[in-house]
Design goal:
Layout: H1 9-19, H2 32-40, H3 43-58, H4 61-95, E1 99-104, E2 107-112, E3 121-125, E4 133-145, H5 147-150, E5 156-157, E6 177-178, E7 183-195, H6 201-204, H7 218-249, H8 252-266, H9 270-287, E8 291-293, H10 297-302, E9 307-311, E10 322-328, E11 331-334, H11 347-355, H12 364-376, E12 388-393, E13 401-407, E14 414-420, H13 422-429, H14 433-447, E15 452-461, E16 476-484, H15 491-500, E17 504-508, H16 513-523, E18 531-533, H17 534-539, H18 542-549, E19 554-556, H19 560-572, E20 577-581, H20 587-592, E21 595-599, H21 605-610, E22 613-615, H22 620-660, H23 669-686, H24 711-737, H25 742-765, H26 780-798, H27 800-806, H28 813-832, H29 836-842
Length: about 850
């Protein structure tokens, strides 16, 4: 049943069963067969199929069947990885679905828009995206942008349903209907949902909402260049091997097999896979910290952030306000939570503060005022629930005050209540300079206590046509309200972590400088006494502003439009800026910042759709945790990429050198596939799940344009690979020198190669620390991959079937000891290449210099 309190649980369940979810059809998903076909187009699998076919032609049925079996193994691993990534993306899509503020059983609650049903009561306010088609029951100055449906750019005025209106077409002025997907530009409304999902206007005309296509990220562009370079080199070397082998040995089929082996060894098909998995799972991990990633580039940008520009209210503070002080004339009353009565001289101040606020408030400030009124004025004549609201004059950019016009029971005239910024209320009251000077002293006293200060005024007006402006009422100044908002207890530690990590924190607030300074001191902000106000910012030219932002951490009396200039000034100084915002007017600043962060709890849909990240709990500490994870993700991505380069060097070398030196082939396609079964899980699972390095938040941010492969990193990876190649080659030559068979030499060198690859995993997992240094969390994936690899190697070398398929022979004890020793030596040499002197020697002039971490503003 529909009641004034909204639907109950039974009514919601009945309608959801009848109508389904409030969503349009999602893009078609690939079924299993389509995914398999897509995966089978991968070059690695195509080469495996070609190698299997060649073995069949050559009569080596067992080897051919083995390669075809590996096709299914690699296919299974790839499908698992893709499904894991897809599940992470689905979870993010669920989190990023639009939200709706609904009344059910008399309680306001914010739910995913897909859970709305017909007859739900929804609350709309400025900046909201309308979640379903609805009819307006109550409205105040409601204006809606319906250009999504009509193409008309002029916003449409809306009025409440009067029972006689029947036109339900979008686009008409004052119609009582709002439509899914349109945008509330101004005002507020209560509406009843009439249609959901495919039954909405948007559903009827078949306009499915499409997800935003992100442009290629810097990492994607770098990866594409790397893959193209490797592929070109691989193709040239493959042709060389085929020609040299066929020309010198007269066996073109074996030459083609050798060429396929080399191509498989060189082809870096892991690069794009690793990038996709890391960014998708990285966004999923960040979502666990209550931060939703709307745009993938933000994941890689997070670790480079140098400045966090943060709103005060609700982000640094708890957004749980309480009226702490009342000021009337020369008297100030400190209010505590246990007070149940107020002196008479403060009654009118609270009375008109309530009249200037909605009777069912959602704003924390207005909730605090009503809590005080109901506690202290409940049994007085100062609560007017039976008065009739005639008109509201909303807050505007020109006047930071709101006025509400009431008609009392006596109908003797109109009563007008106003509240807002004290200077705006003083302007409405036309106070003389002397009173304004005294008012400023009172404001400063309250602000220095960390209180948010609100002015209140009243006016009376005889029945007549209401004026168009608030200034035309004869307002009288009543006094000031001081509201406290305690800081979040975790914020000081989060601010300290930022400074340790070389990240500046700038606090932005609309409050007075005194209030801002008090909060800045409580959270440990650097230089809390150096405050730049909005009016001062407006008076500065761009050059002066760029100079001031380098030494200022607190920005007070700021309006959203000034955030854009602040972001531009910071970016002009070379900073990587993360900016928070929640309102419609915050959208330009969110878009201009490299990382726009919208508030998920109190933010508007416009802000959320513009931002790169959505802070689901509006908590500053969550941003800091997201930065920490962003650094971890980028670090692990670099480790995986370095491992891919280094691990392909010995495989490619052992595929190429025997051909050029006219030796027997050491590696065959089956060997390369075995190695790929180690490399792929290592890249996608082991490195992705690696815990953050010690000191992640004790080092400065990386430059935004830092390359995955600067000269030092690339040279170190190549040297690690060449070291492993030299050891594998040495084992092969040593075993052959001892008059062993070709199959035994192949087995010994393969054992060395597998152990060297596992050593490269361990070494690259801790690029900046010893491989066996204790970490915060054990890497279980490393244990599983290493254990499975060693077990498979033992079975392959010891079982007759494995030896026959891999063309191995039983090893002598000396050969086995040599192979094991060489594998351990490979790990030790890889570790030695990470030593600081070696790292400094390998670094080139083009490598980005390390940025110095600070403990405050730079």
């Amino acid at each position: 049943m529909v009641t004034p309190q909204g639907l109950n649980g039974e009514g919601v369940a009945e309608r959801r069963q009848r109508d389904g979810p409030n969503e349009l059809p999602s893009p078609e998903r690939h079924d299993l067969l389509q995914t398999v076909v897509q995966v089978l187009r991968e070059p690695m699998l195509l080469m495996l199929l070609a190698g299997g076919a060649l073995y069949m032609v050559l009569g080596d049925v067992a080897e051919g069947v083995m390669l075809l079996f590996f096709v299914f193994v690699v296919l299974g691993i790839t499908l698992y990885q893709e499904r894991k990534t897809e599940r992470a993306l689905e979870a993010l899509r669920d989190l990023s679905s639009p939200r709706a503020l609904v009344i059910r059983e008399g309680v306001q609650q914010r739910i995913p828009a897909r859970e709305l049903v017909a007859d739900d009561l929804i609350l709309l306010s400025e900046g909201d995206r309308v979640p379903a088609d609805a009819v307006i029951l109550e409205s105040t100055n409601l204006t809606v942008d319906e250009s999504l449906l009509t193409g008309e750019s002029v916003p449409v005025r809306k009025a409440a349903w009067d029972g006689a209106q029947g036109d339900s077409r979008p686009g008409g002025d004052d119609l009582p209907f709002v439509y899914s997907g349109t945008l509330v530009v101004k005002g507020q409304a209560v509406a009843r949902v009439t249609s959901t999902g495919l039954r909405t206007e948007m559903g009827k005309i078949g306009r499915a909402l499409q997800s935003l296509e992100s442009e290629d990220t810097p990492l994607q562009r770098q990866t594409r260049r790397i893959v193209a370079s490797f592929a070109l080199v691989g193709l040239l070397l493959c042709v060389v091997v085929v020609v040299v082998f066929g020309w010198t040995r007269g066996d073109w089929l074996q030459g083609l097999l050798a060429g396929i082996t080399l191509a498989m060894a060189i082809l870096p098909e892991e690069f794009p896979m690793v990038l996709t998995i890391f960014l998708a799972l990285g966004a999923w991990r960040i979502a666990h910290q209550r931060v939703l990633t709307r745009r993938v580039p933000a994941v890689e940008t997070l670790g480079a952030a140098t400045v966090l520009c943060v709103d005060k209210t609700g982000t640094l503070t708890q957004n749980r306000m309480r009226v702490s002080a009342l000021a009337v004339g020369s008297e100030t009353l400190q209010v505590d939570g246990g007070r149940s009565a107020l002196p008479d001289q403060f009654h009118e101040l609270v009375e008109f503060g309530l009249l200037a606020s909605p009777s069912d408030p959602f704003d924390p400030m207005e909730k605090a005022l009503w809590e005080l009124g109901e506690r202290c004025l409940a049994d007085t004549e100062h609560i007017h629930r039976d008065w009739e609201l005639l008109r509201e004059y909303p807050l505007s950019e020109q006047l930071l005050a709101v006025s509400r016009v009431w008609r009392s029971r006596s109908h003797e005239g109109y009563v007008i209540a106003a509240k807002g910024a004290p200077e705006a209320i003083a302007d409405l009251c036309h106070l003389d300079p002397e009173r304004i000077s005294e008012l400023r002293r009172r404001i400063d006293d309250l602000a220095d206590q960390g209180l948010r200060v609100i002015g209140v005024a009243r006016a009376r007006f005889r029945p007549a046509d209401l004026p168009s402006r608030q200034h035309d009422f004869p307002f009288a100044f009543l006094g000031l309200l001081g509201l406290s908002d305690p800081i979040r207890p975790e914020v000081p530690e989060a601010v300290r972590q930022c400074y340790t990590a070389g990240i500046r924190v700038l606090m932005i607030t609309g409050d007075y400088p005194g209030t801002a300074t008090s909060i800045a001191q409580q959270i440990g902000l650097a230089r809390p006494g150096q405050v730049l106000s909005g009016p001062e910012l407006d008076a500065m030219d761009d050059a002066t502003l760029r100079e001031r932002v380098g030494a200022t951490s607190v920005f007070a009396r700021m309006v959203p439009e000034q955030k854009l200039r602040l972001v531009q000034a910071l970016r002009a100084k070379g900073e990587v800026v993360a900016m928070t915002g929640d309102g419609v007017n915050d959208a330009p600043a969110l878009k201009a910042a490299q990382i726009g962060v919208a508030m998920g709890g109190r933010g508007t849909d416009v802000a959320r759709e513009t931002a790169d990240l959505v802070l689901l709990d509006d908590n500053f500490a969550s941003i800091v945790q997201a930065v920490r994870l962003g650094r971890r993700i980028y670090d692990n991505l670099r480790k995986a990429m370095s491992f891919i380069v280094s691990v392909h060097v010995p495989i490619a070398g052992m595929s190429l050198l025997p051909v050029l030196l006219k030796w027997p082939l050491v590696l065959l396609p089956v060997h390369v596939v075995f190695l790929e079964l180690i490399i792929d899980p290592a890249c996608s699972t082991v490195f992705e799940s690696q815990a953050e390095e010690r000191g992640t938040m004790h080092r400065p941010p990386r430059p935004l344009d830092a390359s995955l492969f600067d000269r030092g990193t690339l040279l170190r990876s190549l040297l690690q690979g060449l070291t492993s190649l030299a050891l594998v080659l040495a084992v092969f030559v040593a075993v052959k020198t001892m008059s062993r068979s070709e199959a035994e030499a192949r087995a010994a060198s393969f054992i060395t190669l597998v152990l060297a690859d596992l050593g490269l995993i361990a070494s690259n997992l801790a690029m900046a620390a010893p491989a066996f240094a204790r970490s915060r969390q054990p890497n279980l994936a490393l244990r599983w991959v290493s254990g499975a690899s060693v077990l498979a190697l033992v079975l392959t070398v010891s079982l007759p079937l494995g030896r026959r398929l891999f063309q191995f022979a039983p090893l002598h004890a000396a050969d086995l000891g040599l192979a094991l020793g060489a594998g351990v030596l490979a790990l030790l040499l890889s570790e030695a290449l990470k030593a600081p002197p070696v790292r400094r020697a390998l670094a080139g002039p083009g490598d980005p210099p390390a940025r110095r971490a600070t403990t405050g503003d730079s």
